[in-house]
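Lay summary. Proteins are chains of building blocks that fold into shapes, and those shapes determine what they do. In this project we predict the shape from the chain. Here is one chain we studied, written as its sequence of building blocks.
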Amino acid sequence: MGATREIAAWVAGASLQAMPAEVVERARAGVIDTIGVILAGTVEPVTRIAAGLVAEEGGAPVAAQLGTTLRTTPESAALLNGISGHALDYDDVSASLTGHPSVVVVPAALAMAELTGSDGAAFLQGYVVGVEVMAKMGLAIGPAHYRAGWHATSTLGTVGAAAAASRVLGLDAVRTAHALAIAVSESSGSRRNFGTMTKPYHAGHAARCGVAAARLASRGMTGDLTAIEAPLGLFALLSYGEGRPEAIAPALGRPYDLASAGLSVKKYPCCFATHRAADAVLDLRAEHGLTDPDQVEAVRVTVAPGGVAPLIHDRPATGLEAKFSMQYVLAAALLDGRVGLDAFEDAAVRRPAAQALLPRVTVHEDPTIAAGANPIEEGHVDVEVRLRAGATLTRRVVHPRGSPRDPLRPADLAAKFLDCADAALEPEEAEAALTRLLAVEREPDVRGLVASLTPAVMVP
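And here is the predicted shape, written in a compact code that computers can read:
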């Protein structure tokens, strides 16, 4: 068999009961974090725009947009929850993927679980499968894919979502292979759209396409069963000679990527490429009492080559652009002593004090920093803060807070969920939902869990 069939055979045979306890535990945490950020994103303009279109189009009320009372088709629910979960750029990232796996896979697996009335174990099983396929594809496709401008969250996420949806549907290996092949032709996503509403649309689009691919395959639609590895296939088109599709299947579950390398849960709602520098600036600010930004003459950030590839907005004017600006994230850190959701409101970005700080922050690439294939998460980041009084403060960060080497504590994860859920649920509703999510694999029917994530009144 080739790669497409081998991946499909693994997906069809994967079982939650056979997965290590550590994988199940981390999967549960990934689901909690992702559903939290989905709830937070329900009030974002991009989510409202997409939800308005879905409501206008109508459709069978099968699956829910979390945080609202809107019910729609499985494909549209996956679309809206994917958009909502990525709208704030607060969702987890994978070093293996160079992208965001959970925000694509959770909506796809959840929509399928609602459609079929599956239990929590089947939902969680689909989630693990989808994340694993995305991560191992990310390792195999090579860094040229990202360098060329493709957004792996969307391109590889479409295939990962199809894998997750196929597993929840219980497709056999042949039908799963057809679903993966269909998903290959739906794969898309340009990094040029970072800092716009279209970036979160990428995640929703990938989730929706994966759900559609699995459902079409379940009805007998076919695709080329070598679509991933063949000439003219996905890797031939998008890996620029670096891809090794034959390496994907043998690596699946050996070990699971949730266990090693693991996911990074974001502490700040912005691009992960800024997080190490933000950690450094916040620590230096606290240690040296830098509460007045006029004390700072300049900030120099040194990264590995490619370490700021996603950060394409040096002088942002909107909150969306600011999420992809090293200059603004560090300006906000200096001004506010934290980097919270409110830092990325348009008015906050346009503060004269923030705009005045932007030119004082410079970023430099150092070719001597060894960072492997993913310089956004590997290697290290050095920050120098030069004060007007003459002193220079320095800090090196290797592992940002929330990364597998410095993970958020369970209490921090719960606090993040409750903070995010506040956008859509009453406090007691959020607490009850969190309690259920902490034992998600024991839910007898995912529809009951989803009901706990739906407010009594539609978000206006």
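What the prediction tells us: The chain has a mean pLDDT of 96.
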